[in-house]
């Protein structure tokens, strides 16, 4: 390795992972939810988790996001042991540095509250007390997710599915989180609407330097969004690596089956 | 059945003790909703069963009781509750705010300033201020525990977005001693400033929901608002047509089919006291005679 | 810049009776800065496989692939991502983009990922698109609707928008007309002139002859064919 060549590859400035997961296990009685899952996630990185229904990918996500308590394992966020946090600190994390985008926007939005109120809630949750500024920020975010400013006082129930999902994303990202969990964010949307959402997410990930963990069964979605991929089966990670490597040169029998099962268009 | 057949103030001693324990806890943690074993009372829910139980637990034979409903001493609800305690406790009653030692109220704080030693008992229909936006009780309790009150401002935000100003006119949420967000019961927001730094003990009873909360004397109570939309204690922009008071909370009364109306003090004791002292309003019988 | 030694690879088809197909053994080559090396060999000999292994798209079983000092065969995923963003550009035959993203953005994206200011990134993207004769009225449209030749040129623009020290070229002149073929060959010559190391597959023999300094026949690395 000579010096000039080495200098071409700029070393990463962020040499500590944002999230370090070790031996994460969640059992439902004798049945395995997910078992012995370990990985690191670096700042600005998008990690896809794929697998069929029941593979444990949703269990893993809910353990990571603090919706369920794992039976064993460790989760370090920015060096902090998340599982050892008090509930108050954990919930503060969920309101500030973390965000969670639900598959069904109805689970992530307040349907009885206007679009502006939905986006503003996290701002008010972290102490925003200036109506004008909250509204300006909400307007700005609606624009960023391509919702017309004049819809700010409409309730999400008056929005299409794609708009609801974009609103949910704005609501989650308005406080500038560092880590975003996404559960099938494009599920249930028309293909054309999916594309728009994917483009939007890619732009936001790049501009905000977000780290994202995205659970999906849609391999096309992870190919376009994820830097790295974990493939899960029966609660275990059977393969992990660069997204295009896992999809184009799958090593595990299950991954080969998964990849070959996708219809090519 | 003779009235002697009732225990003093209707409730048995064990029940009153249980309520007093809840009251003491509520006073120790101002604004915190304390659960209590609410009893069936001989009146329907919504008629003040929570307030009546709190009043019963507070009364002593020497007390002088006043009961108001929307400020008035002479409405059905106020009269019934007053009679109830006259029969079951034999306590003296009054319509005068200054003479009363215990005042049970529905939806008003008297205009006459309260003093040390007085107890104001509020009837509360819905004690949980967060419920309108978060229906899960488990979640709202958690939010109180962790002081996650952003949601309360979402409600005010929605008001401004829809009406251009904070349109919540009653049951206006407050923060107690910088800690708990509390529903002050459906008093008009005009009364909110009187909650704070009040020399009297303020007790809140919600019968159907089995909750008690309290403000000890001189507690700091702040109405929630935005920096650029500050809280305003509003009232109808009139003077009382009977006593001429310009600073009291007014009821609007339609007087004929042609839409004529008059504004009168909602606090009847305050209004009659002023009239007795010679104050006159636009429609006072005497001022008419003079005219 | 690129040093490959003793590279081997086989595919295991778990869903077809676990058949193991060796596809490469003992592969070795080097590409110096300013040099263009062409891979040749009959169809199925493993040209694309080798390219994909260098890119990190295929896994490597044995051997070493040093690109700018990083062993792609052993590197952690995030190091390969970093290598691809900063050092190793890639022009493939296939365009894979999010539908509806405008062409100008598709081309500018590699620069945006390197935190180049948007104005500058778009200006460079525009210059390349113009050079490659993509009409300006198409820049605001998604390339997914374009003809094969247009998509190919968008891919080339994307590959050349940043001055990558290493470039992998997979049939860069296929399906191009004479005029655009000239433009692409010029871009390749310019890249060489600025010192980039290029590794490519060119079926177009004329193009190969013009840009390649050396040819490597991958048949020598193909088990069963080498003998």
Automatic annotation (TrEMBL), chain A:
<keyword id="KW-0456">Lyase</keyword>
<dbReference type="InterPro" id="IPR027417">
    <property type="entry name" value="P-loop_NTPase"/>
</dbReference>
<feature type="domain" description="ABC transporter">
    <location>
        <begin position="19"/>
        <end position="259"/>
    </location>
</feature>
<dbReference type="GO" id="GO:0016829">
    <property type="term" value="F:lyase activity"/>
</dbReference>
<dbReference type="Pfam" id="PF00005">
    <property type="entry name" value="ABC_tran"/>
</dbReference>
<dbReference type="InterPro" id="IPR017871">
    <property type="entry name" value="ABC_transporter-like_CS"/>
</dbReference>
<dbReference type="GO" id="GO:0019700">
    <property type="term" value="P:organic phosphonate catabolic process"/>
</dbReference>
<dbReference type="InterPro" id="IPR012700">
    <property type="entry name" value="PhnK"/>
</dbReference>
<protein>
    <submittedName>
        <fullName>Phosphonate C-P lyase system protein PhnK</fullName>
    </submittedName>
</protein>
<dbReference type="GO" id="GO:0005524">
    <property type="term" value="F:ATP binding"/>
</dbReference>
<dbReference type="GO" id="GO:0016887">
    <property type="term" value="F:ATP hydrolysis activity"/>
</dbReference>
<keyword id="KW-0547">Nucleotide-binding</keyword>
<dbReference type="InterPro" id="IPR003593">
    <property type="entry name" value="AAA+_ATPase"/>
</dbReference>
<dbReference type="InterPro" id="IPR003439">
    <property type="entry name" value="ABC_transporter-like_ATP-bd"/>
</dbReference>
<keyword id="KW-0067">ATP-binding</keyword>
TrEMBL record, chain B:
<dbReference type="Pfam" id="PF06007">
    <property type="entry name" value="PhnJ"/>
</dbReference>
<keyword id="KW-0456">Lyase</keyword>
<keyword id="KW-0004">4Fe-4S</keyword>
<dbReference type="InterPro" id="IPR010306">
    <property type="entry name" value="PhnJ"/>
</dbReference>
<protein>
    <recommendedName>
        <fullName>Alpha-D-ribose 1-methylphosphonate 5-phosphate C-P lyase</fullName>
        <ecNumber>4.7.1.1</ecNumber>
    </recommendedName>
</protein>
<dbReference type="GO" id="GO:0051539">
    <property type="term" value="F:4 iron, 4 sulfur cluster binding"/>
</dbReference>
<keyword id="KW-0479">Metal-binding</keyword>
<comment type="similarity">
    <text>Belongs to the PhnJ family.</text>
</comment>
<keyword id="KW-0411">Iron-sulfur</keyword>
<dbReference type="GO" id="GO:0098848">
    <property type="term" value="F:alpha-D-ribose 1-methylphosphonate 5-phosphate C-P-lyase activity"/>
</dbReference>
<keyword id="KW-0949">S-adenosyl-L-methionine</keyword>
<comment type="function">
    <text>Catalyzes the breakage of the C-P bond in alpha-D-ribose 1-methylphosphonate 5-phosphate (PRPn) forming alpha-D-ribose.</text>
</comment>
<dbReference type="GO" id="GO:0046872">
    <property type="term" value="F:metal ion binding"/>
</dbReference>
<dbReference type="GO" id="GO:0019700">
    <property type="term" value="P:organic phosphonate catabolic process"/>
</dbReference>
<keyword id="KW-0408">Iron</keyword>
From TrEMBL, chain C:
<keyword id="KW-0547">Nucleotide-binding</keyword>
<dbReference type="GO" id="GO:0022857">
    <property type="term" value="F:transmembrane transporter activity"/>
</dbReference>
<dbReference type="GO" id="GO:0005524">
    <property type="term" value="F:ATP binding"/>
</dbReference>
<protein>
    <submittedName>
        <fullName>Phosphonate C-P lyase system protein PhnL</fullName>
    </submittedName>
</protein>
<dbReference type="InterPro" id="IPR015854">
    <property type="entry name" value="ABC_transpr_LolD-like"/>
</dbReference>
<keyword id="KW-0456">Lyase</keyword>
<dbReference type="Pfam" id="PF00005">
    <property type="entry name" value="ABC_tran"/>
</dbReference>
<dbReference type="InterPro" id="IPR017871">
    <property type="entry name" value="ABC_transporter-like_CS"/>
</dbReference>
<dbReference type="InterPro" id="IPR003439">
    <property type="entry name" value="ABC_transporter-like_ATP-bd"/>
</dbReference>
<feature type="domain" description="ABC transporter">
    <location>
        <begin position="2"/>
        <end position="226"/>
    </location>
</feature>
<dbReference type="InterPro" id="IPR003593">
    <property type="entry name" value="AAA+_ATPase"/>
</dbReference>
<dbReference type="GO" id="GO:0005886">
    <property type="term" value="C:plasma membrane"/>
</dbReference>
<dbReference type="InterPro" id="IPR012701">
    <property type="entry name" value="CP_lyase_PhnL"/>
</dbReference>
<dbReference type="GO" id="GO:0016829">
    <property type="term" value="F:lyase activity"/>
</dbReference>
<dbReference type="GO" id="GO:0016887">
    <property type="term" value="F:ATP hydrolysis activity"/>
</dbReference>
